[in-house]
Design goal:
By secondary structure, the protein is mainly α. The strands form 2 sheets. A two-stranded antiparallel sheet has the order 1-2. Strands 3-4 form a two-stranded antiparallel ribbon. The N and C termini lie far apart (about 110 Å).
Length: about 850
């Protein structure tokens, strides 16, 4: 089979074949579409084996079905019908064609796009399709039926046919307001002579009418719509009444409306005898459908027909409609307690695919404005998965800025509570509602352009609630939420995971607010994917806040206050991401007014065992430290900050040092004086840190501490400064030039702080080893301490530091006459394989002899 198609594909390449192809276009199209369907399902191994051989001969797609689609494209372009090819591409119709679940939909779409070009071929095409469908076991039944009954443009049908077609739908429109109009729909089937093909068509449509497949039944009903143009067909259709009545209780509202339309066409026939026998059963079947206004009007029409026929069997059923009529005409302001009932009634009226009229739309909006809590909570409870009727109601609300303004606070209350929220309505209903149900409603509202201004007023809370839900749904989601979400997937084309839908809603919200550039910017930095991972979520929240900084400026202050409220609870549920967002907007807060709320949050996270919380708390303190008035408040956290200086995370230590550095800029440092000695002691241990940035910051900060306290007196810091001399001297020989220069500068400041002009003079002349000699000669009480401070540097990975330590120890030992220390230093030199140590050994032995003979 596919061999012939390969041959056809080669023939199509030749320009002269166009006229011949046009003569066979019906069969060619049907044959190619049939092959696509067959090759999309389970393909026999011999076909696959054959196709692999073809791939070696031609540059073809790896799958036969994609080659067949390519052949259809080539055929359309060669005729030439390139505009059809482009129209299908725009509607993404080619990919569904190679999917077995959507193949028949794609076939219908293809027929619609080709309706004008196929007009001359409709009659032979319909006959060919009838032949395929009349076989005992049709192999391509559903797509062929779709092709046969696919609607065409009214302009493509002869005027007499169009006029005949319009009459029944005008009748349906008069008796069923709100029913979708099919006035402009015509099918390939319309081009058949119904009398000649009656038997074949009836047999095919009857078989599909009794099928368990909703699509087959729907197509069969659409086929019958064509036959209704012939009034003589009414009696034949009546013979199928039992099958039609069985469709009225169906859950598919579209099927029910189409079935009702069949009965409406029966009413056009002047000979009503065949219908009268069916009427009682029809009336009984209509009664459960009274929630739909279409069924009311149709019921009225049936009554009028039967009254004319002398029968009145529907009197009892008519009485049963009074209750629903009462609610349909109810004034929502008369009794608040009845509002939930009205909302449920409206939802039921729309359930049968009845389009909301202007009156219904107005009533929904008026009710939402007057009673937002009852409307929102009732609708969320009666349609948690947001079926088609509920979706229409939410969109009606979304189309009214005033209604949106009223319902958003209620939706936000539900969204901000995870996983469920309970809020009573006026009728006492207090059942829990899933938080994500409210988000689904919000998503539908966002689709309406008129809601933009109302959304803008709630941006801080909306963003906070959506990001909170993303966080909660990314972790361990309760099974009942997952089960609920699986039900939602059946109603809407949504992502399989709730958190992906929530991210999609955030994007929709930002785009509705015309912040598309920010959405793209976050996408470029992979921020949306990062938001879906629990470990990186706080990074993504911070990125989102930064990328939206310029558009969110008017909202940052209320946003920060809202986040402060969330983080100030006893057990915040969304602490890390909320803290990440707060840090980005903290500079928009008045620190003097909010310090009592901000500092406890930062203090709590500063003491956390989580490095990310500590890091964010430090970033928050850095923002606050810009305000000089906050220095005293930050000093109250000194003990926690000092503990972080011992952390192994270099970045954390750098941020902590930066906080202290910012505090020292304040002119009034009285609150800092008591912290200074402990800070200086902690800084001294950081001189040897592995992180160069930590070394530089700690050395420079040590200098600032000395300069600040010099005015207050040197006694508080004298011990720590003495203990810093040897480390600073040795690091003055560091391989890193920045560290070396900073160490020498701070060493000079230390000498000045201690008022040791002799040491200061030697340092200025860069006589470093005379500095050592002078230090050990005059600082007798601290000789042992200085010597022990130099010992660890014998194990330093840096050669210059080891050399400086050895020389210092040689000088120190000479002054102390401690041969054991000299031997330890000599041993360290002997074990070091550095060539430059030969000279040092000589110098060291010389120092050793002086010590012995001293």
């Amino acid at each position: 089979m596919v061999t012939a198609t390969l041959a056809l594909w080669l023939i199509i390449q030749e320009p002269k074949c166009q006229d011949a192809l046009m003569n066979y276009i019906p069969r060619l199209l049907v044959a190619l579409l049939f092959q696509v369907s067959m090759s999309t399902e389970q393909v026999p191994e011999e076909v696959n084996s054959f196709w692999r051989g073809c791939l070696e001969q031609h540059r073809l797609p790896t799958q036969p079905n994609r080659f067949l689609v390519q052949t259809i494209k080539a055929l359309l372009c060669h005729l030439p019908w390139e505009d059809i090819w482009m129209a299908r591409k725009r509607r993404l119709a080619w990919d569904p064609l190679v999917n077995s679940d959507t193949h028949h939909y794609a076939v219908g779409l293809h027929v619609r796009e080709m309706r004008r070009q196929l007009i001359p071929s409709h009659s032979p095409l319909a006959i060919h399709l009838l032949g395929l469908l009349s076989t005992e076991d049709p192999r391509w039944e559903l797509p062929a039926l779709e092709f046969l009954v696919e609607p065409q443009l009214p302009g493509t049908v002869p005027a007499p046919c169009a006029a005949a077609w319009a009459q029944p739908w005008a009748a349906l429109g008069s008796c069923c307001p709100g029913t979708p109009s099919l006035l402009s729909a015509f099918q390939v089937l319309d081009y058949l002579d119904a009398r000649r093909c009656h038997s074949s068509v009836e047999q095919i449509l009857s078989r599909h009418l009794q099928s368990q497949c909703p699509e087959r039944r729907r197509l069969a009903l659409r086929g019958r719509m064509v036959l209704w143009m012939d009034l003589s067909m009414a009696q034949s259709i009546c013979s199928l009444s039992q099958h039609l009545l069985e469709l009225l209780p169906d859950e598919d509202g579209e099927l029910v409306v189409m079935t009702l339309s069949v009965f409406v066409n029966m009413l056009r026939d002047k000979d009503m005898q065949a219908f009268i026998s069916t009427a009682p059963k029809l009336a009984e079947a209509l009664r459960p459908l009274f929630d739909n206004l279409s069924s009311f009007y149709f019921f009225q029409t049936v009554m009028e027909v039967l009254v004319e026929g002398g029968t009145r069997p529907l009197e009892m059923q008519m009485h049963q409609t009074l209750v629903l009529w009462f609610f349909l005409h109810y004034d929502e302001h008369q009794c608040v307690a009845e509002v939930p009932t009205i909302v449920r009634s409206m939802h039921q009226c729309l359930t049968s695919h009845m389009a909301p009229g202007i009156t219904m739309h107005t009533n929904i909006c008026r009710l939402a404005e007057a009673h937002p809590r009852d409307v929102v909570m009732t609708l969320l409870r009666c349609a948690p998965e947001c079926d088609r009727a509920a979706a229409m109601m939410w969109r009606s609300i979304g189309s009214s800025a005033r209604a949106v303004e009223k319902v958003l606070p209620v939706l936000l209350q539900v969204m901000e509570d995870w996983p469920v929220h309970g809020m009573p309505t006026s009728d006492g209903d207090n059942r829990d509602v899933f938080a994500v149900t409210a988000t689904l409603a919000l998503w539908l509202i966002i689709q309406e352009p008129k809601c933009q201004d109302a959304l803008m007023n709630y941006v801080p809370r909306l963003l906070g609630a959506l990001l909170f839900q993303v966080s909660m749904s990314t972790g361990q989601v309760p099974e009942e939420v997952n089960s609920f979400w699986r039900g939602c997937l059946e109603q809407h084309r949504l992502p399989t995971q709730p958190n992906r839908f929530l991210v999609q809603t955030i994007k929709a919200l930002l785009c509705r607010l015309q912040w598309d550039n920010e959405v793209v910017s976050v996408e470029r930095r992979c921020g949306w994917d990062t938001l879906l991972c629990a470990d990186t979520q706080h990074y993504a929240v911070g990125l989102l806040a930064r990328e939206m900084r310029h558009v969110l400026v008017p909202f940052y202050s209320p946003m920060a206050i809202h986040l402060l409220g969330l983080l100030s609870t006893e057990h915040p549920r969304w602490e890390l991401p909320a803290l990440a967002f707060l840090v980005e907007v903290l500079d928009f807060l008045d620190g003097s007014k909010c310090r009592d709320r901000v500092l406890p949050i930062l203090s709590r996270n500063l003491q956390s065992q989580c490095p990310e919380r500590q890091r964010l708390a430090l970033r928050g303190l850095l923002v606050l430290a810009v305000d000089p008035s906050m220095a005293k408040s930050i000093c109250s956290l000194s003990q926690h900050l000092l503990e972080l200086l011992r952390d192994a995370d270099g970045e954390l230590v750098v941020m902590t040092l930066s906080v202290f550095e910012s505090v020292l800029r304040d002119e009034d440092i009285r609150a800092f004086i008591f912290t200074a000695p402990k800070l200086a002691e902690a800084l001294r241990t950081l001189f040897d840190h592995d992180n160069t940035h930590v070394q530089l910051l700690s050395i420079r900060l040590f200098r600032e501490v000395m300069e600040v306290l010099a005015e207050e007196g040197t006694q508080l810091l004298e011990t720590q400064v003495h203990q810093s001399l040897v480390p600073l001297f040795i690091h003055g020989h560091d391989e890193n030039q920045c560290v070396a220069e900073a160490s020498r500068e701070v060493l000079l400041c230390a000498a000045r702080f201690l008022k040791r002009r002799d040491l200061e003079k030697l340092l200025r002349k860069e006589q470093h080893f005379k500095f050592c000699d002078c230090l050990m000669d005059k600082d007798v009480s601290r000789r042992a301490e200085h010597l022990h401070q130099a010992l660890p540097y014998l194990q330093s990975p840096q050669q210059p530091l080891r050399e400086a330590a050895v020389r210092f120890m040689g000088i120190a030992a000479w002054h102390m006459q401690d041969l054991q220390l000299l031997m330890r230093a000599f041993e360290a030199i002997s074990q070091d394989d550095c060539p430059s140590y030969c000279t040092m050994r000589t110098e060291f032995l010389s120092a050793f002899r002086r010590a012995v003979t001293k």
